[in-house]
Amino acid sequence: MNDNNSNNNSTSSIDSAILYSAMSASFFATSLLALQSDFLSRKFLSPLKLYAKRRQDQIYKLDKAISESIQRIRYHVNEGHHIDSSVERQVMDLVLEREEIHKLVKDMMIACSTSSKSRRSVSSAATSAKESAVEGSSTSPPLIVGISKDLTMAKDQYYIHLAFALSERGHHGTQDSAGPTTSSSSNTTHVQYGRRVQIPLLTFCETLATEFESTLTSTAMCFIADASSSLSSRVFSALFQKCSSCLEIPLVQEPAWMTTVALLLRRKEITEKQAEKILYSLCRMQVLKLEWEQRIGSRHKTVVFVLPGQGCTAVLLPLLQKIFPCERHVFAYDGCVDSVKRGTAMGRWNKKRGVEDPASLVPFYGMERNVSAVVPLAPMMKKLPQLPDLLAKLSKDMASVVEAWMSSVDAMIELKENEKKNMYTPFVCRMEFLLKGENVEEDNRVLMLEERGRLALCNVLQYITGSRSRALDDATLDAAQSVLMDLRREWRKEVAGFVEMSQSTRTEIEDCVFLHKMILIGDKTLPDTVIPKVEWSLKAAKKLTSCACCFPGEEGEGDDEDGSQADDKEDNEVMVDEFAVSTVKSTASRNTTYVDGKSKFAFDPSVFTGMK
Question: What is the pLDDT of residue 59?
């Protein structure tokens, strides 16, 4: 009997221990899940630990999006079939030796050169035969599938995956390099891919860059950088796609491979020099592909690259300016508060409806906007050590968008600070001028919103197309204006659907931005923002040199790109009210013994003997 009681007691003790362990494990799991909640993390974690945790989540989100983009492109290449990677590897050509890579690049360049010559002399039967032979080859410029490691071969080497089309020639023949791939598009034809190639990334890009450095091109490039949570990407992409028959300017729209290169550079898995080679060679190859497809119009001879969202701008923009200093650059921006509303709305759409937000849609080769617009690749904590304390007051999504927007604007400001050295003279485009705004007075008359929007549209199109000295025809402007009006209506509906932001939240966002000191808050503009007018300039006539809470100082007058004075007195009056960024120089420091030549004589005649 005693033995039975002791056995029962021991059994009961074991059961209690098991129950206690199970309860402890359950409590631990619940606590862990609770800490995963950003709301509770803000309560229990210090700002620095919260910042680090959010950063891990951001990088995980970006890695996942890059992987999904590669799968999406593979799905397109495989004609809508999901093929196991082990099966796909069997049809993949591994081009590993330097001699093989050199031959592949040479064959591609020769094929494109032969094609170009044949189009100029189509009367020769021999040339036509040669063109037919080239057209059926696998040496035309390929589609970039993605950049990744192959752990079955080398753990520390990155490879670029390419797909060569079997047939891709003809004006507006494909949408691989630009534009959506909807079957309803009149400019879309079915593309079949044949050869798949896997090549060491650095060796291929170095070889390709060497070839391009000795090859001239008559096609200009225009790079559009964003600081508006992809609003500018949507607007300019729609303009050039829907006005393709008038403008004939193809798009390379937010390519995922650019995001991958930016991430590799931030992780220090490639050097800055290597990143420059990769960007230079692959951008030129994209242009070559569009030339091969005969999709570049003869009038403007321009290809527009819409960079991945504002989170990547701080990494990509300085490199692209360094590589292509003589090409055209557009920096398009919106206010931080509106950008936060837009960026967080994309995430809420996905969570609530389980489908993609139309605002976040990109071509099959593009990076998802609800990632590229909200994940900052270049954190601002090193420049602004106090930023984590302020970001901790915001939700995870809002804090992410705020930092992404600030990093993009910071990159632009830093380039402008050294513009004489780096030659960065972009078209600084304020999206409000295109899409909304109050009535402004100019030449003693009221310039209505529609007219100002038309002027702003005309200005930016003149810059992108390189047609400032030869005006765009009325038909092109009317078509673009019609598209812009549709976009404006869509934009107003979108804004009406945003969740209303409390004044306290707006203040917290403004506190983060104002911490930068070089960015003014409120309804202001960035330096050298192009004011819509007939005689526009890339350079502002007067720059403010004080922060938002001080009386505006002034700096010397700038010169425009022609070497003349940038703007007239009328522009000065506008810019004094709307200028956005100070160079944070103390006006008091100017009160020295040196003579200010702008307000006095460069020398004082009275100091000479006999003149007093």
Answer: 93
